[in-house]
Each structure stands twice: as C-alpha cells, then as structure tokens.
Amino acid sequence: MSNNANNELTSRGWNLIREVDIKYDGNNYGSKELIYCKSGYVAHLQYAGRQETEFGWTFSFAMTWGPSDECR
Fold it and tell me: Is 70 a member of any domain?
C-alpha cells in the first residue's frame, strides 16, 4: 500500500484513527480501510489490494460529517 495518500492526509491535519484489514469471502487479499478524523469530519480511504483488477479500482475515498462514533 502506498503511503502517498496517508502522507497527504496527515500533512493536512487529518488524524489516522484506525486501520482495518478487509476480508472478502473470508480471504485476506491485502485490502485495507484507513479511517481519519478532522474537525467533525470522517474520511474513509479503502485500498483494493490484490483484487484491484477484479474490482476495477485501486482505492476509494469517502467523507462524512456530523456525529460519529469514530471521532469522539
């Protein structure tokens, strides 16, 4: 997994809260989700891992705001 996205987010004040290994059909293909918080916002960065070709994407990025269990 590239550290570029992590470095970009942390250099802009986002705090890495946790990193989660994601399994598909009970198998670990190197997929991960990183969860960041900043000022009431939550960012989810997910890497496809070795299923990149099958999924058709390398990573996804989503943001939410408002009350969150992640960023207390």
Answer: no
59: amino acid identity, one letter: F
Q: Partners of 19 in the beta sheet? A: 34
- Supply the pTM of this predicted model: 0.78
pLDDT given for residue 34 in this prediction = 92
Q: Residue 60 falls within a domain, yes or no? A: yes
Can you tell me the mean pLDDT for 25-42? 89
In a domain, 72, yes or no: no
Q: Which amino acid, 25? A: D
User: Measured between alpha carbons, how far is 19 from 35 in angstroms, rounded to an integer?
Assistant: 6
Which residues, 6 or more positions from 52, have their beta carbon under 8 angstroms from its beta carbon?
A: 58
Provide the domain limits for residue 43: 4-65
> Could you give the dihedral angle defined by the CA atoms of residues 19, 7, 61 and 39, in that order, rounded to the nearest 10 degrees?
80
